[in-house]
Amino acid sequence: MRRAGQFTFLFCLAAGLSFAQGTEGGEGSLLLWKWANFLVLAGALGYLMAKTLPPLFLSRSEALAKDIAESEKIRQDAEARAADVERRLAGLESEIAALRAESVKQSEAETERLAAHTAAEIAKIKAQSQRDIADAGKAARAELKRYAAGLAIHLAEEKIRARMTPAIEDGLVRIFVRDLK
């Protein structure tokens, strides 16, 4: 870049000198100064561009390369995620079928458990009912025996009262007193 700037400067200087030799007078001198001014301005701009543009282009190229590398990494991550999702989706049907089968199995097991529990509860209720019926029968028989005994005692008492006379009463009292002695 430096050599190109030096070459341009020398070329412009030579062109200015040859032009200055070919023209004589005031108008040529003005044109020479215009060309010299243009060349100085072009050289200064060339120098500034040569000084600032390469680092700018280099930093921009590095930023682009970094962005490209980052984009590639993001693309690879996205492809990996997409492959993972595809893998999961491929296994989803079999997983759903397995869950359904497990659900049916658990439902059947729960139904069997409930049936067994219900049968056991029914058996308990039947046994309790039979015990209650037996207890009620015993209680009724005992009540009936008490009632029959009460009736028998009452009937015997009435018979004894009907047969009891004052002479029999005196005899019973004497026997009782004699037994006490």
Q: Could you walk me through the main structural features you see in this protein, from its secondary elements to its overall organization?
A:
The chain is an all-alpha fold and 181 residues long. It has one domain (2-180). The chain has three helices and no strands. It has helices at residues 2-22, 26-163, 166-180. Helix 1 packs antiparallel against helix 2 (26-163). The relative contact order is 0.03.
Largest sheet: none
Strand content: under 5%
Structure annotation, total helices:
3
Characterize the overall form: rod-shaped
- Number of domain modules: 1
- The end-to-end span amounts to 162 Å
By secondary-structure content and strand pairing, the structural class works out as mainly alpha
Give the helices and strands as they follow along the chain.
Answer: HHH
The helical percent reads over 70%
Find the count of extended strands (DSSP E, 2+ residues): 0
Oligomer: single chain
Radius of gyration: 66 Å
Mean pLDDT over all positions: 84
Sequence stretches where pLDDT stays below 50 over 5 or more residues: none
Q: What are the key terms here?
A:
single chain; 181 residues; mainly alpha; rod-shaped
Write the topology of this structure.
Layout: H1 2-22, H2 26-163, H3 166-180
Helix pairs in contact: 1-2
Short characterization:
The protein is an all-alpha fold. 96% of the residues lie in helices and 0% in strands.
